[in-house]
Amino acid sequence: MFYARLIVPIFNKQAPLEQGSLRDKISEYANQVGFELTKIFVIDGSKRSTKANAYFSGFGSEKRVTLYDTLIDQLTEEEIVAVLAHEVGHYKKKHILYNLLAGTLTTGFTLYLFSLVVDNDLMAQALGVSNSSFHIGLVAFFLLYSPISMITSIFMNILSRKFEYQADAYAVRTYKAAPLITGLKTLTKTSLSNLTPHPAVVWFQYSHPSLLQRITAMQKIN
Angle at which helices 211-219 and 177-190 pack, to 10 degrees? Predict the structure, then answer.
């Protein structure tokens, strides 16, 4: 609720997007899909990185879209609107809510496992300590949780990639495929991402599908 107002200003400067064709196009698209959006900001992301980005934050009256200045410099206006259409897709498909629920369940599961280990004498003895304590329980937990966290992260990544495909499809159906594809190509190039990762690496480690996978999926949408 307060991230944009309290946290962001500590690290970056942000200012409302000036009136002009880009703001008009963003507002026109938002009105077209019934997405109420009056707060559009630009942040000085270039002070730390050349990576381009955009994100939504806040709820209710605090809802806003923030564009990195690098995004405005590197993409055309149509490509920027297409990228925002993808983000609107996440909102419309309730991905934020689902991710929040999944994160809460994962955290609860983690804390439950921790409660089983933290005062366990057998775990302490396995590490060569006669009596259990919070500190040795913490060490034992991190040793045991490492392989478990790998498994949970795989499922979270599968869910995340599914959401990315859905958001891409929403952007294609409500706006255009061509500017989204060209925009993603530019973003992938400027972020120095691997264009041809091995499918196994994508399955195990990537929260987003590869660029080629996303383009192929968008081209199949009627």
Answer: 180
